[in-house]
Amino acid sequence: MVHLNRIYTRAGDDGTTALGDGTRLSKHHLRIASYGTVDELSCVLGLVLAYGLPEPAAGRIQAVQNDLFDVGADLCVPGEAGNKLRVTAAYTGRIEGWIDAANEHLGALTSFVLPGGTTASAWLHLARTVCRRAERLVCELADRSEEQGRVNPELVRYINRLSDLFFVLAREQNDGGAADVLWKPGQGAK
Fold first, then answer.
1. Residue 2 pLDDT more than 90?
2. Lowest-pLDDT range, 96-105, 109-118, 135-144?
3. Rounded to an integer, what distance in angstroms lies between the CA atom of residue 170 and that of residue 127?
4. At what angle do helices 89-103 and 153-173 cross, to 10 degrees?
5. Quick one: CA dihedral 154, 160, 164, 165, positive or negative?
6. Phi, psi (degrees; rounded to nearest 5) at 181
7. Nearest in space to 179 (alpha carbons), one of 187, 167, 170, 188
8. Rounded distance between C-alpha atoms, residue 7 and residue 187, angstroms
C-alpha cells in the first residue's frame, strides 16, 4: 500500500525520477514519458466521468482508471515481475468483453467517424487519441534494444484494446451511433 507523508522530496530537482526498483532515470526518458502519458489518459477519463456518463459506461471507465495505475506500476518496475504487479491477459479479456457488449447495440459503420456528437462522445474520442499516443510510446520503449524483455508484452495488447473500447463507448454515447458525425471524403474540394 502507498503511504505518503509529504508530497515533495526534492530528489527530482536534478531532473531525474526514481523507478519502482530504485533506478533513477531522466524525466524525459521514454519509460517516464510512457507512464506519464498513461497518467494523462487517466486524467482525461476523469473529465469523461465529470461530465456524467450513465452506467454501465461510468463503472467501466472507473475500472479502467484503476487499471491505468496498474499499467503505470507495471511500467515503473522494468524486467522480471517477481512479486511486482503486472498487467495480465485477464485485464485485456475484460476489456474485450466490454467492447463486444457495447458494440452489439451499435449500428454498422458506413464511413469513418469524426470526433464529436455529444460532449461525452467527444471526451471519449480524446481519451482514444491519448491512449493511442501512450500505445506508440510503450511500443517504442519495448522496441529499444536496451529494453528487450523489460516491457510486459501484455501492456501493448491491453492499451491497444483500450483505445477500441473508447471508440465503441464514444459511439454508444452518440445515441448508439445514430448521432455519429461521419467523415465525408472530399467535401472540402467542392
1. no
2. 109-118
3. 10
4. 20
5. positive
6. -95, 115
7. 170
8. 52
For residues 120, 173, 69, 36, the Cα torsion angle rounded to the nearest 10 degrees is -50
Residue with cell 458506413: 110
Q: What is the pLDDT of residue 107?
A: 86
> Is the model's pTM score more than 0.85?
yes
Q: How far apart are CA 111 and CA 67, in angstroms?
A: 31
- The sign of the torsion formed by the CA atoms of 93, 154, 33, 164 equals negative
Q: Long-range CB contacts (< 8 A, 24+ apart) of 132-140?
A: 132/163, 133/37, 134/34, 134/37, 134/38, 134/40, 134/41, 134/159, 135/159, 135/160, 135/163, 137/30, 137/33, 137/34, 137/37, 138/34, 138/75, 140/30
Give the tens place of pLDDT for each residue, 30-52: 889 999 999 999 999 999 999 88
Instruction: Count CA within 13 A, CB hemisphere, residue 28.
Output: 2
Measured CA to CA, the distance from residue 183 to residue 17 in angstroms comes to 43
Element (H, E) at 98: helix 89-103
Run of H or E residues at 182: strand 181-182
* Cell numbers linked to 164: 477500441
Contact between 124 and 118 (Cβ < 8 Å) = no
